Prior knowledge:
CATH architecture: Beta Barrel
Largest sheet: 6 strands, antiparallel
Strand content: 25-35%
CATH class: Mainly Beta
Low-confidence stretches: none
Order of helices and strands: EEEHEEEEEHHEH
Distance between the termini: 17 Å
CATH superfamily: RNA polymerase II/Efflux pump adaptor protein, barrel-sandwich hybrid domain
Amino acid sequence: MSTYPDDLLYSRDHTWARVDDTVVTIGITDFAQENLGDIISVDLYTVDSAVKQGEPFGLIESSKATVELIAPVSGDIIAVNEDLFDDVGVLECDVYDAGWMIAVAIDRVDELDDLLDPDDYEEYVDQVQGRR
Length: 132
């Protein structure tokens, strides 16, 4: 049994995707959050921006680094979690719900096939950490 929520799909770029028909809500995984350290700020693309699978949808700045947030799917951003601009601390305590980042109207449903289920993502994280 995975330690990651089973209602989500995961990318190798450590983002999660919650699928609701043709809308995909996206955030970072707990693994990403823990490895970033203290998060200082988040800069996200705006509503109506187009994002492409494997390309950035924003930046996250932490005490360790500033990194690009990589989109797990392609589509148009239909919502941005503006609460994160005022309180990035939510990413440290509720990364899978209140810590969502953007919602995308997905262009290609077949891109979901490229994502990992929770067990496969956990195995991938173990490989990244050199556990297996």
